[in-house]
Amino acid sequence: MPTFGKIHYGWIVVGITCLVLLTSAGIRSTPGILMVPLENEFHWSRATIALAVSINLILYGCIGPFAAAVMERFGIRRSVLCALTLVGIGVASTSLMRTPLHLILMWGVLVGAGTGFLATVLSATIATRWFTARRGLVVGILSGGASTGQLLFLPVMANITAAYGWRATVLSIAAVVCVVLPLVALILPERPSDLGLMPYGETGEPKPAIAPKGNPVVLAFGALRYAVRERDFWLLAGTYFVCGASTNGLIGTHLIPACMDQGFSEVTGAALLATMGVFNFIGTTSSGWLSDKFDNRWLLFTYYAVRGLSLMYLPFSFTDYYTMTLFAMFYGLDWFATVSPTVRMLTDRFGREKAGMVYGWVFTAHQLGGASAAVFAGLMRENFGGYMEAFMFSGLLCLGAAVAALFIGGGRRPPEPAAPTAVTAAA
Question: How high is the pLDDT of residue 147?
Answer without folding.
Answer: 64
